[in-house]
Amino acid sequence: MASYGANTQNAAAQAYATALGTGSLVIYAGTPPANAKAALGSNPVLATHTMTGFSVTGGVLTANAIVDVPIAASGTPTFVRVLVGGVAQYQENVGTGVTVSDPNYVENGTSKVTSFVITVPSE
Predict the structure, then answer these.
(1) Which of these, 74, 83, 68, 63, lies nearest to 103 by C-alpha position?
(2) Of 10, 79, 109, 122, which sees the most CB atoms within 10 A?
(3) pTM for this one?
(4) Cα(104)–Cα(55) distance, rounded to whole angstroms?
């Protein structure tokens, strides 16, 4: 098993913050694909937020404030992807590293991301 020291963990976290910080956070419904590289099925897009960067402390990335946006379709938010240049670079389940204010999205309502945190493993 790989193990990282604090300097390596923090450097990796900063690299992730740089790579993901200006992407789009897209919220989907349906069964999540196996990973960010896997093709989406018929997963509807519920909302698309613009990322405004991350703060990094001790290997933990915390998203800067994410502006609320209108909900594009009704459904249950199940996973998110961060797209950079239209390409998925990160995927996470809602409720794990990403939380939203409402478990049931209704079209034309408001999508509110209440937290988005990524922890880079140290050991």
Answers:
(1) 74
(2) 79
(3) 0.93
(4) 29
Closest CA relative to residue 49, chosen from 19, 85, 80: 80
Q: Do 43 and 26 meet the contact criterion of CB atoms below 8 Å apart?
A: no
The helix or strand, by DSSP H or E, that contains position 19, with its residue range, turns out to be: helix 6-20
Distance separating alpha carbons of residues 35 and 30, to the nearest angstrom: 14
Max Cα-Cα span within the chain: 46
Q: pLDDT, tens digit, for every residue of 32-86?
A: 999 999 999 999 999 999 999 999 998 999 999 999 999 999 999 999 999 999 9
Q: What is the rounded CA–CA span in Å between residue 32 and residue 13?
A: 24
pLDDT given at position 5: 83
Token output for 8: 């390596």
On whether the CB atoms of residues 30 and 78 are closer than 8 A, the answer is yes
pLDDT for 18 beyond 60 = yes
Q: What type of residue is 122?
A: S
According to DSSP, residue 94 is labeled B
